[in-house]
Amino acid sequence: MRFLDRVLMAFEGIGMAVDAIRTNKVRAGLTIAGVAIGVFVVVAMGATVNGIQRSFQADLDEFGATSFQVRRRGIGINSCDGSDESCPDRRNPGITLEEWRAIRGMPEVETATAWLSGQTTFDYRDRHVTNVGYDAQSPDWIKTDVADISPGRSFSVAEHDAAASVVVINDTLKNRLFGDSDPIGKQIALEGKQFTVIGVFHTKAGFLKSMDGRGPDKPRAILPMMTAYRHLDVWRRGLLLMVKPRVGVDPIMAQDGVTELLRARRGLKPGQPNNFALVAQDRMLETFDQLFGAIFMVGLALSAVGLLVGGVGVVAIMMISVTERTREIGVRKALGATRGTILWQFLVEAATLTSIGAGLGLLIGSGLAWAVRTYTPVPTAVPPSAIVTAIAASIATGVLFGMLPALRASRLDPVEALRYE
After folding, report:
1. Which ranges of the chain have pLDDT less than 50?
2. How far is the C-alpha of 255 from the C-alpha of 68, rounded, in Å?
């Protein structure tokens, strides 16, 4: 019976909350809006980070779970201010073609894709597409980029080694330069040099590709790495390698072998640090977690501000509710209602107000996640943890900030309350 009484009082508290909203529309609106904003931030940030993480992992999986990068400098979040003291790896020499060939020939390595990036203008007759990014890669790029080429083909090993003036373009660049016409075999100009289009590639959307301009909606081109190295104004120190160990080879052993090879070629003594960096998939994920973990914490701080605004509104509107119901509280106490009964009823009313705000915030946050998933390459999805956190935070806000008015109501003297006008 006691449980049933509490359920009935909970429904009564919900009704009181609805009445409070009708009576105090402005205060109730501010309370609900504050909580809704706080919950919206939690849900939106959770959905976005979750979606980016899934897209990020998918991009890494394209390279293979055991693959790793060989770079001039490492990656990560640090306090580098541009000086040699805070970031000594600025002085590291670039990865060379000779080192690439040596790593590619290691027995532990299946493939080592060389990779340079640049940006220039592409011209075809009277059409000009500016700020087009291009990737200059070795012939095995197709194994790591998982791109489909149709029509046409990729460049051959012979074309790569001979620095042939051939290029593969993506759909976006093809449409901007050629429209609906067939681009295969046509000549386009890069930095005043003529290149023959030999293929059109189609790549999947992904967070990493979108961030560095390689998304399917961005004009992009791929050409032989040796062609860019010899004939284009490309930053050679930016050369990096994507190394894929052979099947059955322990990735750690492959990384150790590459490290030993580079240290020997660069004449590094046992006590000297590496002047290059190997970046494995787990390191990239760790950097991702650090970056977006910090962003998520900022989002939580903003959410806390919204919940604080909602909490202040709860205190105000509940104090008014207690004042308006003073005589009613006196009657209920005179009829035998306990302090716990009054406290429970007003806490339910406060939690109802914040729960309405939470529901609104969840609805808006889920709508935003749907829009991002529909119109961007990021597969956002609201994780259950974000929903639980948002609802729990809203209820906790209602209980915490509603406690003071509820305690005041429960401690009213019934005789004095009955005399209240």
Report:
1. 1, 210-213
2. 8
